[in-house]
Each structure stands twice: as structure tokens, then as C-alpha cells.
Automatic annotation (TrEMBL):
Name of a matching Pfam family: SET
Keyword Transferase: yes
Molecular function terms, GO-annotated: chromatin binding; histone H3K27 trimethyltransferase activity
Reactions listed under catalytic activity: L-lysyl(27)-[histone H3] + 3 S-adenosyl-L-methionine = N(6),N(6),N(6)-trimethyl-L-lysyl(27)-[histone H3] + 3 S-adenosyl-L-homocysteine + 3 H(+)
Keywords, alphabetical: Methyltransferase, S-adenosyl-L-methionine, Transcription, Transcription regulation, Transferase
Biased composition regions of type Basic and acidic residues, renumbered to the chain: 375-385
Protein name (database record): SET domain-containing protein
Any one GO cellular component localisation term in the record: nucleus
Coiled-coil ranges per UniProt: none
Amino acid sequence: MEGSSRLDRKYGTNECSELIQAVLRQVWEEFYAWEQPASRTAINSLLRNPAKHTEGTTTPPPLDLDNEVLSAFSEWSLDSHPETLQFIDYPEADSITTHIPTYTIELPVFQSHDAYEGSAPLSRNIHVGDDPDNMPFLPFADDPSFDFIDHQTAYKYLSWQDLPDPDLQVIVMETIHRLHTTYNLSLEQIESTGTLPISLFPTINSPGLLHMSKLRDWPAWPQLTLNSNLPLSAFGPPKAEDLYDRVTKSLRNFCPNLNCIDPYCYVHIEMNPMPPPKLPPFDNADEPTQKAPCGPHCFQLLREKENEAESWTAEESNELRTILQLCGDVPPCDLAILCLKPCYQVSTEKLRIMQEIERPVETDLASRYFSNAPPKKELKPDRNRLPPPPKEPCRHSGPCDQFYLTSTGHSLEHCHCAFNNTRCQRNCQCPTTCKNRWKGCDCHNGRRTAVCGSDSCVCRRAGRECDPEICLSCNARDQTHPCQNAHIQRGLSKRTLAKKSGMGYGMGLFLDEPAKIGDYISEYIGELIYEPTVDSRDDVARHRGRTYLFGLNEGVSVDSSLAGNEMRYINHSKKANCRAQMKLVNGEQRIGIYACRNIAKGVELSLDYGPKFFDR
Ligand SMILES: [Zn+2]
Ligand SMILES: [Zn+2]
Ligand SMILES: [Zn+2]
Ligand SMILES: [Zn+2]
Ligand SMILES: [Zn+2]
Ligand SMILES: [Zn+2]
Ligand SMILES: [Zn+2]
């Protein structure tokens, strides 16, 4: 009687929430009352029978006093009372304890190596952007002087908070079963209160408990009702992606930078993701005509049939829509082959679909978050200093002017490149004839001397390395050709050695071959990170007293603390023998280190970190 009156009741949201909490608490207590003794029984069942025990003693081998390692130390002592080392061995049924006498040798105190951070070796910058929102571990966990409370505000949560709790899944499953059978609450009702600690339905971060419940084993808790009348079968795995999503997602794995066009390129993919396919102009109703009709059903011959009502299934239309979204300028003759339909029908259907396809609205550049600048090495003010290149290549209709109205006269579009006062890059989608593109230099190698080595080269003057695709006369494309303005892209570094610094800074970097004034030494390589990550990593860098940060432009820094090359060991000096210069190398900003005087082999290299580095 009582059960049926409960089933008839309707619960308000608050009441519902309290009910869920009460049931959850009860299930929780029941589960843990069962779980502890059950676990103990399970563990005890694994115990082996008490075994026989044998003792033994081994005589140690005579100590080799002429040992090569020991003789390297002038003073060492050997104590006369050896201790014993105990080995306990567990063969099949018995255990054997063996005692081995050991000697203690006292060695003189070692000089510790100068402190430095290990890093993964890189030959190219890699784009990291921002570190994840979860903190993977507590830095300096055993050091009370590190301000952990302040540091953790840079993260949203701790990595280990995110792991699914298998016990909690059991408790919640039983809770929803009881709520459903005893109190007649639907799964949607339960979920809508947001009271349960696990989400039942799929969310962005999780497939939901109902789906996960089908993927795991359950403990033998007698109270757990799995074959209940919960409508679990309705909750399958998350829906598979359609063709359009699959194609555009895999597109993102390819580097759009025309220098690489690599899959999984760590330098560019995150920074300049492959843009979604470009839709053809909207009001262009005229089909590109082929030279000859593709057959008797070609749209070029059967134009009068355009308005004829055709019977296309929704599935067939959707397939054509996807193809058009991916490559909208394919002529009907080719589409007909893909769709297995007569060409004139495809033409009609294409026109209909093109009216419907939504065009993405181009948005303004998002402004980035900036904060108090932590110390990082600075590029010296330089007349060749370039404004930062836009984060994305431009892709818009019309010429690369700063502002103009769209053809419909409604929204204001702009060209990122013109807006940021930078030249269009190779991977911009404007035509190669765009007036905003860099034209390259026309230096010649007339007297068989090095070309592009002085400021008479426009590329060099503009802080750009010669572009092999554009600078044709200096032959930058030919790796063996003496264009003197392509060192970074060719990787023509000087040999260097990292060892104990003579400047009192720990480790330092030394030249291993002579360099002349103006010579390229190497590239400063590391992870490209944004300001919020610069800040969160700075807490740690400041605490250890060593930073490997180099400001590239206002939004991006090169950090070689975790990964980089030997340039990270260059120390600061007011009278530095090297200088850093940012170069635009085939559309990408990279930091070159150049000799600013003649440097002999074996000399320690130095760089002026700039005033801001020591500000704080
Ligand atoms: Zn790339
Ligand atoms: Zn543009
Ligand atoms: Zn552009
Ligand atoms: Zn352009
Ligand atoms: Zn040149
Ligand atoms: Zn050039
Ligand atoms: Zn050149």
C-alpha cells in the first residue's frame, strides 16, 4: 500500500533533490558496510599457507682494494665492522634468508654539478599555446617556501580529481534504480536536479554513466540491481560523426603551411589550423561550363529540364550537400559521377541546396589576455622589428584592403593581414597577384660573391629571410647556393658546447669554432606559449631561480625550459658578444642569434637579456 502511494506522488524540484540525497546517502552507507568485510575476505582468500623457513650465511667476496673506481679518490676509509645485508628469497613453498656481510666505504664529498633543467632536444619550435587547465602534479611539493596556493589559481582543477571512481559508479547505479522503482522518478527528472555526483547522460567531457555502465564489470554486491526495468537500452554510445565532420576533422591533422604540408606538424597545426573548406561565391548561379557535355543527360544539353520536379531522397540530398560544403566548385558533370545521378538533376539539386547552405560569418580577431610581464629575454629594439604576423592567414572575398563591405553590403569584413599591417603569407587564400604579398628581393650573384649579405637586399632590410618560392634571382631555393640570408631555414648553426660558465651563472654556452661579426650562431628554439601559460610557468621558474623564456611578440613567447636546443644556456651580459634578432622565415617568426663581434673558438657566448628581464 505504502509503495503504491509513493508511486502516485509528484515531487517538486527541491523535494526531489532532497529525496535523491537521502537515497544516495543510504545506498552509500549500505555499500561501504558491505565493501570492507567483502574486500577483507577476498584478500584473505589469496593468503598462502605458512611456509618452512631456512637461514643461511654467505661469505662476501674479498674486497678489491685496487678497484679502479675507488683508486680515483685519494682519501677513503673502510670500516672494520661489516654490517650484514639480508636477502629473503621466496621459492615455491619455502622462504630462505641469506645474510651477506657488507663493508661501508666513506668517500670524500663530491662537488655537485651546477643546477640546470633537463629538456627534450628540439630542432624546430613546437607550438604549445596554453598548458592544459588541469595541474598534472604539485611542483616543489616538499618545499613550504613555494606559494602553492597562488600557483594553483592558474589551473582549473587537479588532474587526479578527474579520474572516475568505480565505487561511486556502483552507488549511483543502485541509487537511480531505487529512485526509479520505489519513487517512480524518471532518469530525466533525476538528472535535471543536478544532485548526483556523476552525470547520467553524455556531456562534453564524459559519455555519461548510463553508457559507461555497459562497459564495466560490477562487484558482487547483493543489493546491486543491474537487470532492473531502467530503460538503459535506449542509451547507446555517443552518435558517430557524419561525413562532413569526419572529413573536416581529419583535415585539421594536416599542416596548412605551404612549407610543410605535413601531417601532425607540431610547429603550425595548432597555431594556424587548416581552415574549413571555402564555399564558392553565393550568388554565382552560373555553372562553370565544361568544353564538351558529359553525356546525353548533361545539364548543358538539358537546361529546359531544370524546373522539373525530381525525386531525390533526403539521404541523397544530404550526401550532395556534404560534397558541396567540402568542395562547392565541382561542376555538375563530376558531381553526377559521385552521386550516381543524371547530370541535369544534379545541377538542379545543387542550385536548390546552394541557396540553403549557411555561410559562416567572419568575426573580428579576438583580443588576447595580457598580464604583468614575467622576466623574459627581449629582442633589442630594431628598425627591422616587424609587427607580429596575424595568427591566421587571411581568407575572405575581395582584395586585401583593410576594410570593405561584403557584396551583400551588410557586414564589415576585414583582411587580418592588412588590418595588422603585415604582408600576406604564403598560406593566405588571396591570389598570388595580391598587392599585399611580399615580392622578394632581386639580388644577383653577378661577381660570384655572396648575395643577400648586406642591407642592399630588401628581404634582409625587412627582417625576412629569403623565401625560396619568391626570391628566385638569389636562388634561395638551392641549398648549396651562397644566399647569405637563409641561415635559419637551412639550419646553418655554429658548433657550440654547454658547460660550466665562467661568468658565475652555473651553466654557460661556448663557441666551438670561430665566428665573424654578423655570423649566424643558431636559433633560439623552444615551445611557443601564450601569456597565461607564461604566467603559470613563471611561478615555477621564479622559485627555482632559472628561466628560459624569450619574448617573441606581444602574445607569444619561446620557452625552452621543457624542450629546446643548446641556445637556452646563453647567459646575460651588458657587453654581450651576441645579439638576438627576430626574423620572418617563410611566414613564421623565428629568433636568430648572431655574433655582434668577432668571436674566437672556445669563448663563452652572451646575450643582453634587456632591461625588463631584471625588472622584478
Ligand atoms: Zn607545419
Ligand atoms: Zn587578405
Ligand atoms: Zn593575407
Ligand atoms: Zn592578400
Ligand atoms: Zn636578396
Ligand atoms: Zn630575398
Ligand atoms: Zn637571398
